[in-house]
Each structure stands twice: as C-alpha cells, then as structure tokens.
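ARCHIVE RECORD
Type: protein–small molecule complex
Small molecule: magnesium ion
Source of inputs: curated submission
Record status: active
Notes field left blank by submitter.
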Amino acid sequence: MKIIAIANQKGGVGKTTTAINLSTCLAKAGARVLLLDLDPQGNASSALGHRAGEGQSLYRVLIGHDTLAGKIQQTRFPNLSIIPAQMELAGCEVELVRAENHLIRLREVLTPLKDTGRFDFLLIDCPPSLGILMTSALAAADGLLIPIQCEYFGLEGLARIVDIHDQIATSGINPSVTLEGILMTMYDGRTGHCRAVVEEVRRAFGDLVYPVCIPRSIAVAESQSFEKALIEYDPNGKAATAYRQVAEAFLARQLSSDAVPAASL
Ligand SMILES: Nc1ncnc2c1ncn2[C@@H]1O[C@H](COP(=O)(O)OP(=O)(O)OP(=O)(O)O)[C@@H](O)[C@H]1O
Ligand SMILES: [Mg+2]
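STRUCTURE (tokenized, with ligand):
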C-alpha cells in the first residue's frame, strides 16, 4: 500500500476535488483504494455521501482510544473504501500534540494496514492549515501530491509546500517521502495568465508536473452538491476526462517505479 498525501497549505486549490476524483478514477481502473479524509471540514466524505457521525473519524484512533479497522467504510464504488472525517478531528490539534511522538502517530496507526496488503493506495485529503494533521500526513506518506491552482498566488503556495516537504524529508521525520507530483487545477486555456503559470511551473519542476491540467468546469461544483464523483455525474465531461487521464498517468508512474504489483491493477 502506497500512501499519498494530497496536500497544499493554501486553501481552495482543489485538494478535496482531486482526492474524490482521483480515488474514484483509480478504483474504476481496478486499483484498491482507501481514501482517508483528514480534514475536519469533511468535504471529501460528504461529497461521496459519507457524512460521518461523532466517533467515525480517525480521531479516537489517533489519540489511542480506538482501533483502525472499524473506521473503514465501503463506498458505493467497488474497490473504494473511505475513512470519513468529522469535526472531532480538529481536536487533534490540541489532544494529539500532548502525546509523545505525536508527529509519527498517524504513521504508526497505518503501518499494520500497510502490512495486510488490503489496499494498493491510501490517498489522504489534507486540511489547508499547517497544523498537526497535515504534518502527520506528510510524516506518514510515501509520496506528496500537490494540487495548485493555475494563478500567480498558486506559485507562492507551491514554493512553501515544497519547502515543507523538504523539511520533513531532511529533518529525519520521514526521509523517504518523495514528491509524487504537481497537479495544475482550475485551468482556463483562454487566459494567457493561466498558460504562463503552467509554463513557469513546468520550467521549474519538469516531469513532476502532470501532463494533464484539470480544466475549470462548472460540473465540479455541481457534482459535489449532488454528492457524486465526476465519473458518475458527468462521465464524458472535460473535468472527468482529465481526472481519468491523471489516474492513468499516476498508475503509470507507480508501475514504472515498481511500487505496486502489476497483478493487482
Ligand atoms: N476544476 C475545477 N473547476 C471548477 N471548480 C473547481 C475545480 N476544482 C475545484 N473547484 C471548486 O473550487 C472550490 C475549492 O475546491 P476544493 O474544495 O477541492 O479545494 P481544497 O484545496 O480542498 O480546499 P480546502 O483548502 O478548503 O480544503 C470548490 O468549491 C470546488 O468545487
Ligand atoms: Mg479540501
């Protein structure tokens, strides 16, 4: 099981949209996926129709009062499970920091699941703040996937999250975490501004940037309001098509790094 944190400390850049649509596209392609909603806002959970009650998030597991197994719910998509989020997760910012080794607590909790071989990928939808939840996700992750919005403010955010990744890797907290990729979101090809931002990011990060940009599309907000993934709501639309292509590119990257046994895909 490869753990991918979908993170950017900047808000509203498409983390949750990517978590929902990449996980459903990967599951549709045959990968066994677990989506961990680590954002107390719970947007990924509700967008997939899994609004959680108190006690159903990872919170009690992280503070050592419960076990992981009972938190995993099957979604209506074959191959896709979810651990939903609930407001209680926000309590980690206060409770968890009191625990010893709190930064690696999430990693410890996920290790037995990794060993079972039940899932190929665990995608973590991170909250937009630089708190303990996001840091824990980076400390537990094998790879970091950074969605950035195609605008100039997005570039500043990108520099910051790349710095955070480097700090986690070099401080010894998680030396093996890699930059899995950068995904440009809310792309509008009609504006020179959008194209210039994409070009600049490609110049700086080369092949780390996914070849497909996610276009701006009204179907994204609509699908979320109907609690549907894009591949259900508007399967042939431009945003669903782009996420399918990103899932293909994601799988190709994993196979080329031999991270996942080909037989399970
Ligand atoms: N490709 C897109 N086209 C149009 N709207 C989009 C697109 N991607 C995301 N959005 C919209 O932008 C808003 C923010 O997206 P999303 O919730 O995925 O970002 P986020 O990074 O998870 O935000 P937060 O930091 O608050 O967790 C949402 O209203 C979503 O519907
Ligand atoms: Mg979000």
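CURATOR ANNOTATION: Residues 11-17, 39, 43, 128, 185-186, 214, 216-217, 220-221, 224, 239 surround adenosine-5'-triphosphate (ligand 1) (CB under 6 Å).
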